[in-house]
Specification:
Layout: E1 4-8, E2 15-20, H1 47-62, E3 90-93, E4 96-99, H2 101-107
Antiparallel strand pairs: 1-2, 3-4
C-alpha cells in the first residue's frame, strides 16, 4: 500500500508529496545526499526548493576544497546514494554527462582521466 503524505514547502509554500511514508526512509528526498541536519531551516522543502538548497550547500562546500584537503573531505564518509542527480553529481553537455566536483569527492580518489572538475 502506497501511503503518501502531502506537505507544504516551507520555502515556496507549494503543496507536494512527501513520498511513501509506509516504508521507512522511502521519500524522494532520500535520493539526495544527506547533507542537512533536521534542525536546519524548518519543515520539508518541495523537490524544486530542496534540489536548489542542496546545490547551494554543495557548491559552498566545494569552494572550500583544495587538492591538499580533498582526500579528507566529508563527502567520502556520507552514506552512498543509489542515483546520480543532474545538477548535483553531473550536468549534460553535448549529450554527455560531465561529472561535477561533488561526484569526484564522493568517489574519494582521482581516476587519472584528467576530468574537468577533478578536485585532486
Amino acid at each position: 500500500m502506497n501511503t503518501t503524505k502531502m506537505k507544504i514547502c516551507s520555502s515556496c509554500e507549494s503543496e507536494f508529496s512527501c513520498g511513501d511514508i509506509s516504508i521507512e526512509n522511502k521519500c524522494w528526498c532520500n535520493d539526495y545526499p544527506p547533507i542537512f541536519n533536521l534542525s536546519e531551516g524548518g519543515d520539508c522543502l518541495c523537490p524544486v526548493c530542496f534540489k536548489e538548497a542542496c546545490e547551494d550547500k554543495i557548491e559552498a562546500y566545494v569552494e572550500t576544497i583544495t587538492p591538499h584537503n580533498a582526500l579528507k573531505n566529508k563527502a567520502i564518509s556520507l552514506p552512498k546514494t543509489e542515483k546520480l542527480i543532474e545538477g548535483i553529481d553531473y550536468y549534460t553537455e553535448d549529450g554527455n554527462m560531465v561529472f561535477k566536483t561533488w561526484f569526484h569527492l564522493k568517489r574519494g580518489t582521482c581516476c587519472g582521466n584528467d576530468c574537468r572538475h577533478c578536485p585532486y
